[in-house]
């Protein structure tokens, strides 16, 4: 066969597969909320971020259907070209009000929001202080910005203080953190971050992808729960997780939003989400604001689930979120646990490097308000038996 300039890919793929690091997109079919169908079997879905079980909510689907008929399928271009249709304007006003901020800007995804906002805030003369376990889209946003990337050890405020001191001469400083860490499920020390940002005149950005809709009196997120909303200069939220949909938003002062409208490249250079999406998100926001039942049930069930695994001697870090990681170590073992869980009717993801640091492969259980307590209790006991069979946890 003739050689091609893509010949290098074959050996790279072999290397990935041999190290249990190749990622393969499986096939699933929808089932009832909180479940998924795979290879003809219905599994309990502990792999999705549909935390509140809204992805199939009839009110959201109806709002999207109406908007689809009224507004059409696609938005045609960037909103800077075609203008914002009513579902966008309604949603951005509601989001700004929810957070008590001057404005909000909807973008196509959390990845794009991070890739857009960070380069809009900092450049070559600046520095970004970023928790070592921050999401990949933050890391990519920092690389795109060309600012210096000062990574601090996970949650280590003494380390951050040292780095802030070291870079005190820089033009602009941005501290950025996941509010709830996506693969560990623990919370950032937001109160201490606020103190440090004040001391050092830095901007503070919180990515509330995994906390929006789950914490706070009206579901606004972790900063709101801690009474710190006013101290967060840049709030990033996503619609792909607790909202059950797709998309993201940035929220902050009126001036910040004005600036991002000119400077956030994914807004300027990318087609806007179809208007049916912000219409559906608005319906999801109303459900989230309507009452705390779903989020309270979710957090109570997550505590119970986490406690069952810990009591069985499994390596589950502390936390208070619907993300419950079971630490395994090596990628091949994590894949074996994932396969054995699927045999037991549980869909859960083995997360491997480079998503998590080398040697810390894990199963990431993410729970949903769509799951009943009984389902989760039964799942926990099946997980414990699978782990025992594979030699994990206390005998
Ligand atoms: N930030 C964090 C902390 C995330 O976990 C994710 C998604 N996994 C994103 C941003 C990206 O959001 P989206 O899926 O909407 O692109």
TrEMBL record:
UniProt key word Methyltransferase: no
Protein EC: 2.3.1.47
Any one biological process term the GO annotation gives: biotin biosynthetic process
Cofactor: pyridoxal 5'-phosphate
Top-level taxon of the source organism: Bacteria
Pfam families reported for this sequence: Aminotran_1_2 (PF00155)
CDD domains, per database record: KBL_like
Protein biosynthesis found in the keyword field: no
Keywords, comma-separated and alphabetical: Acyltransferase, Biotin biosynthesis, Pyridoxal phosphate, Transferase
Record-annotated Aminotransferase class I/classII large domain positions: 42-383
Residue numbers of N6-(pyridoxal phosphate)lysine PTMs: 241
Associated pathway: Cofactor biosynthesis; biotin biosynthesis
Catalytic activity from the UniProt record: 6-carboxyhexanoyl-[ACP] + L-alanine + H(+) = (8S)-8-amino-7-oxononanoate + holo-[ACP] + CO2
Family label: Belongs to the class-II pyridoxal-phosphate-dependent aminotransferase family. BioF subfamily.
Subunit text: Homodimer.
Function: Catalyzes the decarboxylative condensation of pimeloyl-[acyl-carrier protein] and L-alanine to produce 8-amino-7-oxononanoate (AON), [acyl-carrier protein], and carbon dioxide.
Protein name, entry field: 8-amino-7-ketopelargonate synthase
Gene: bioF
């Amino acid at each position: 066969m003739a050689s091609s300039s893509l010949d290098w890919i074959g050996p790279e793929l072999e290397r990935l597969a041999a190290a249990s690091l190749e990622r393969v997109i499986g096939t699933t079919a929808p089932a009832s909320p909180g479940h998924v169908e795979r290879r003809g079997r219905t599994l309990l879905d502990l792999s999705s971020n549909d935390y509140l079980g809204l992805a199939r909510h009839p009110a959201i689907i109806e709002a999207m259907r109406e908007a689809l008929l009224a507004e059409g399928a696609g938005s045609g271009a960037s909103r800077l070209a075609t203008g914002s249709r009513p579902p966008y304007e309604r949603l951005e006003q509601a989001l700004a009000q929810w957070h008590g901020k001057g404005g909000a800007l909807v973008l196509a995804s959390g990845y794009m929001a991070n890739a857009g906002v960070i380069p809009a805030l900092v450049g070559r003369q600046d520095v970004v202080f970023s928790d070592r376990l921050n999401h990949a889209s933050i890391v990519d946003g920092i690389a795109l910005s060309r600012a210096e990337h000062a990574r601090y050890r996970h949650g280590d405020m003494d380390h951050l203080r040292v780095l802030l001191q070291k870079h005190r001469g820089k033009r602009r400083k941005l501290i950025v953190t996941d509010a709830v860490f996506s693969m560990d499920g623990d919370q950032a020390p937001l109160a201490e971050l606020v103190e440090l940002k004040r001391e050092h005149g830095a901007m503070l950005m919180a990515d509330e992808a995994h906390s929006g809709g789950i914490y706070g009196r009206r579901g606004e997120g972790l900063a709101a729960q801690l009474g710190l909303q006013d101290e967060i200069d840049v709030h990033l939220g996503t619609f792909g997780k607790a909202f059950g949909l797709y998309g993201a938003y940035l929220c902050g002062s009126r001036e910040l939003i004005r600036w991002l409208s000119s400077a956030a490249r994914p807004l300027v250079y990318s087609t806007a989400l179809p208007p049916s999406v912000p219409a559906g998100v608005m319906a999801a926001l109303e459900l989230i604001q309507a009452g705390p039942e779903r989020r309270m049930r979710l957090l109570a069930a997550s505590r119970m689930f986490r406690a069952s695994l810990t009591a069985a001697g499994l390596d589950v870090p502390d936390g208070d979120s619907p993300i419950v990681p079971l630490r395994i170590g090596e990628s091949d073992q994590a894949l074996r646990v994932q396969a054995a869980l699927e045999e037991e009717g549980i869909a859960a993801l083995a997360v491997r490097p480079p998503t998590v640091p080398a040697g810390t492969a894990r199963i990431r259980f993410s729970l949903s308000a769509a799951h009943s307590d009984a389902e989760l209790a039964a799942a926990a006991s099946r997980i414990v038996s699978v782990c025992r069979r594979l030699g994990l946890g206390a005998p």
